[in-house]
Every structure is written in C-alpha cells, then in structure tokens.
Design goal:
The protein is α+β, with helices and mostly antiparallel strands and about 350 residues long. The chain is built from 11 helices and 9 strands.
Length: about 350
C-alpha cells in the first residue's frame, strides 16, 4: 500500500513536469515488446475536436509520464497503470488542443527551421538503415509523415512559448521584491555539522543487551576521544557505527534543529567545533558525536539565492499559466475517449 501511494505521488510529479514534453517525435517512442502491459497496435483511443489519436500516442505518453517502465520491458505497475493512463490521456488532450490552437492562430513554421529540426532529429541515428527502420515502424515509412510530426511539435512549442514561457519571466527587480517581502523564507536556522558513531540497542532491549551496547559505546568513546581530527573520528565510525552515515565516515553534513533526536540535538548545539561528546542515549541507541562546524541563524544573501529563486518562481508561474491555458482550451473542446 505504501509503495502504491509513493508511486502515485511520483506519477503526479512526473506528469506535471512531463506535460506536453513528448509531443515531438522520439527515436524510441512506443516500441515495446508484445508482452508489455500495454502493447500499441494503432487502435484509436482518443478524439479531440475530431482529431483521432491512437494507442501508439498513448503508450508514448505513458512512457513519458512513467519512464521507469522502459527499464522493465514497457510494463507498468499494475496497481498504478490506471493513474498513469489517465495522466497520459490528459497530456495528449492538452498537446492536441495546443496544436489546434496554433493552427487557429495561423502560426507557421519557417522552412529553414523545419529543415534544421528534421536534420537534428535524423542526426540521432547511427546510420541510414536505422533511420529507415524507424520511419517504417513509426512514421508509416514516410519522410513527409515525419516532417508533419516535427512541424506539429514546433507549432505546439510556438503556442506554448507565447502563452507560457514568455509570460513566466521574472526580472531581477521582481525577484528582489519577492526576496524583501519574504525574509523568513530565506533565513537559515541554527545549524551544526556533525559526525556520529551509533551503537544500537533497539526498541525493547533486555538489560543484558543494553549493557553490551553500552560497553561497545564506552570502547568507541575512548577511541573517539583519542582522535584529533575528522578523518580519525570517521575511521572509527566506518568500523563500528551502525547508522546509515557510517559509509560516509559518520558525516551528516549540516543539520538544523528538528533534524536529529532531541537528546543528540541538545548536546551538539552546546558544543564547539572540534569537540567530541560523551555517550548520548538517543532512545534506541547510544550516540557519540563530533562537531565540525557551527552556524548561527542568518539571512542568506539575495545574490546567493537569486538563481534558485528565479528557477522556482518561474516554474511555479509556468505551471499556473499552463493550467489556465489548458482550462481555457477545454472550455469549448469536444473530447471523447474511444
């Protein structure tokens, strides 16, 4: 059940980023084994304002929404396949509506741009034989069919650029205004860089088991206190620690409050860089910590966050504009699943 929920969350995330990402022809679009969960045959599956899309389009988009299926012979998780199909159909509907809108506006692709796009696509093939095999399998053996698909993809890009890309730009002044208005978003909390050695005794240990764990912790502490640096402590962590960080010399990098057991947090935030703690009872294990650095809470500078902020805000704006455009196109559309 947990795996299914995790997959659904992943599908939602991938579908959001994949929307209209696969409208261009691809070198390996829908060629999946006949044993795959969904094997395309060219059967109509969708009609959008009279335009028919087939199961080849659907499988291509399902693989775009959930690309991990390519690693499993084109098979999709059984419990999640309906959601993958639903997301793929919605993407297909949107790209077809966007294409029809581009034609309604009278948008045209310059011959030079189309020729270059076709040339770039052909360059992905190792030789002419493989290209011809692709044409036969995916484009009815016709180069004109391929040119038509490439032209369609460019037209979709053009209308999306006008409706989404060009309208989602943020200037430096707008970014600065957002930064100044939301200082808490850019305030870094108190942080500490630590290494740990963990000796586990479990949730319900017997007195004997807890005693043995304490003895191992006492021995590890002697060794840790004898070390003088990061490497020495890390070597001990690699040998005796049982937590997930032992393979990284016990290094957790930077952590802020709330990211570690309360007992450990209380101790490490009272230490200075270079100090090794005593034995800390973390509730299911004994922990020994070395503090490598401390940073007090501070406001991260605008120039440091500007690049990531621009990326985040523009992505959010693109998602909003794309959703609004989608809603507007669907308002008068006739969409039928076949």
């Amino acid at each position: 059940m947990k795996l299914h929920i995790a997959i659904l969350v992943l599908i939602a995330s991938l579908a959001a980023t994949a929307q209209v990402a696969s409208h261009a022809p691809t070198v390996q679009p829908a060629n999946v084994p006949p044993t795959a969960a969904v094997a395309p045959s060219g059967r109509p599956v969708l009609r959008v304002n009279g335009a028919v899309l087939t199961d080849r389009d659907l499988v291509r988009e399902m693989l775009n929404v959930f690309p991990y299926a390519k690693q499993h012979g084109g098979k999709f998780p059984k419990d999640s396949e309906p959601e993958i199909r639903k997301a793929a159909l919605r993407n297909l509907e949107f790209e077809e509506l966007a294409y029809q809108e581009a034609k309604r506006r009278g948008l045209a692709v310059a011959p030079a741009r189309l020729n270059q796009a076709v040339k770039d696509f052909r360059a992905q093939f190792d030789d002419e034989t493989k290209f011809q095999q692709y044409l036969k399998a995916e484009q009815k053996g016709s180069q004109e069919e391929l040119r038509s698909k490439v032209r369609r993809a460019i037209l979709i890009d053009m209308v999306l650029k006008a409706e989404v890309e060009d309208r989602a730009k943020y200037t430096d002044a707008q970014l600065r205004a957002f930064y100044d208005k939301n200082p808490d978003r850019f305030r870094k909390p108190d942080s500490v860089s630590i290494q740990t050695i963990t000796i586990a005794y479990g949730d319900n240990p017997s007195p004997a088991d807890k005693k043995k764990a304490r003895e191992r912790a006492d021995e590890a502490l002697k060794q840790a206190q004898a070390t003088k640096d990061y490497e020495g402590f890390g070597q001990i962590a690699e040998k005796v620690s049982v937590d997930d960080w032992h393979v990284m010399m016990g290094d957790h990098k930077w952590l802020h409050r709330g990211r570690m057991p309360e007992a450990v947090e209380k101790v490490v935030f009272s230490m200075k860089p270079g100090e090794v703690s005593g034995i800390i009872d973390a509730g299911d294990s004994y922990c020994i910590a070395r503090v490598n650095g401390r940073e007090d809470s501070h406001l991260v500078g605008f120039n440091e966050v500007k690049g990531r902020l621009k990326q985040d805000l523009e992505k959010q704006k693109k998602d909003e504009l794309r959703a609004a455009f989608d809603k507007r196109l669907r308002k008068t559309a006739k969409i039928e699943e076949l």
